[in-house]
Design goal:
The chain is of the alpha/beta class. Helices cover about 40% and strands about 10% of the residues. β2, α3 and β3 form a beta-alpha-beta unit. α3 runs parallel beside α4 and α4 packs parallel to α5. It is globular, with a radius of gyration of 19 Å. The two termini are about 20 Å apart. It holds the Pfam family Amidohydro_2. InterPro entries: ACMSD, Amidohydro-rel, Metal_Hydrolase. Keywords: Lyase. This is Gamma-resorcylate decarboxylase.
């Protein structure tokens, strides 16, 4: 399929490059860092070769979210966003941008998002999970009360927010002790991000801001296949839900969330997601440079779905969501 739009596509600046060093072994790091730092050369050639018209670019992980000193987080986010704006300006026909945000400070994050959208032309934000801040032992998840003002800004700007994974911190990773292979994209990324997304759904956030749109990668981090159970466990016990939100969790998932195909190139999984959330809320993505563009595109272009759904997932849904 020609004209695809891909939106979980990462880059790095020198200050964040080493955040990605542990995700591949040995000599593969030489290749990965080259991929992360390149925007205008190999990336464009691969896009041309595999029918990708537009990439929406975002900073690598965990990057800003793992910078515990708030002032430095604000500075790195701004520098990354300025660098990305410069790269996109070279090829505005091929690249768009997600803002990196210093959510250690919700007000600063809101101001940076406004700057990126109104002045730099960014189409939304991508944030790498919870944030850390030096003056608190608590991890900062975005259902917490101090983020309500930030979410009001997102709603007012009417741009999507991509909730991207990061690993849990070592003190929260005891279940993985002795099994490091389960960390990262194998399992821990999905578990961490799914819980964060459920916290947002249960918090009442979408009752306050029903126009908010949240994107999850990797075919929804496992959530499409758990919706019925989340809302119907022990259904014979007639007690009200114990969360503040006014509706079923599946209602928010189906109305306020989109998912992408990033790093999860399996037809059965895609069809299951289409049955749960609908083809109108699924978006093509590759997860470059951590996954291969050819693996994503070759699979998607031949997967056994209708051509109408392929056009929606590959291009049309993103055009509508981002106003491209």
């Amino acid at each position: 399929m020609q004209g695809k739009i891909a939106l979980e596509e990462h880059f790095a600046i020198p200050e964040t490059l080493m955040d990605s060093a542990g995700f591949v072994p040995g000599d593969y790091w030489t290749e990965l860092q080259s991929r992360l730092l390149d925007i205008q050369d190999k990336r464009l050639k691969l896009m041309d070769a595999h029918g990708i018209e537009t990439m929406i670019l975002s900073l690598n992980a965990p990057a800003v979210q793992a910078i515990a000193e708030t002032g430095r987080a604000i500075d790195i986010a701004r520098r990354a966003n300025d660098a990305l704006a410069e790269e996109c300006a070279k090829r505005p026909d091929r690249f768009r941008a997600f803002a990196a945000l210093p959510l250690q400070d919700p007000e600063a994050a809101a101001r940076e998002l406004e700057r990126c959208v109104k002045e730099l032309g960014f189409v939304g934000a991508l944030v790498n999970g919870f944030s850390q801040r030096a003056d608190t032992d608590a991890l900062l998840y975005y259902d917490l009360p101090q983020y309500r003002g930030f979410w009001a800004t997102v709603a007012a700007l009417n741009v999507p927010f991509y909730l991207h994974p990061r690993n849990p911190l070592p003190q929260d990773s005891r279940i993985y002790e002795g099994h490091p292979w389960l960390m990262g994209p194998t399992w821990a990324f999905a578990q961490e991000t799914a819980v964060h997304a459920l916290r947002l759904m249960g918090s009442g956030l979408f009752d306050e801001h029903p126009n908010l749109r949240i994107i999850l990668g990797h075919m929804g981090e496992g959530l499409p296949y758990m919706m019925w159970r989340i809302d119907h466990r022990n259904a014979w016990v007639k007690v009200p839900p114990k969360y503040p939100a006014k509706r079923r969790i599946a209602d928010y998932f189906n109305e306020n969330f989109y998912i992408t195909t990033s790093g999860n190139f399996r037809t059965q999984t895609l069809i299951d997601a289409m049955l749960e959330i609908g083809a109108d809320r699924i978006l093509f993505s590759t997860d470059w440079p951590f996954e291969n563009i050819d693996h994503a595109a070759d699979w998607f272009d031949t997967t056994t779905i209708s051509e109408a759904d392929r056009a929606k997932i590959g291009r049309t849904n993103a055009k509508l969501l981002f106003g491209i």
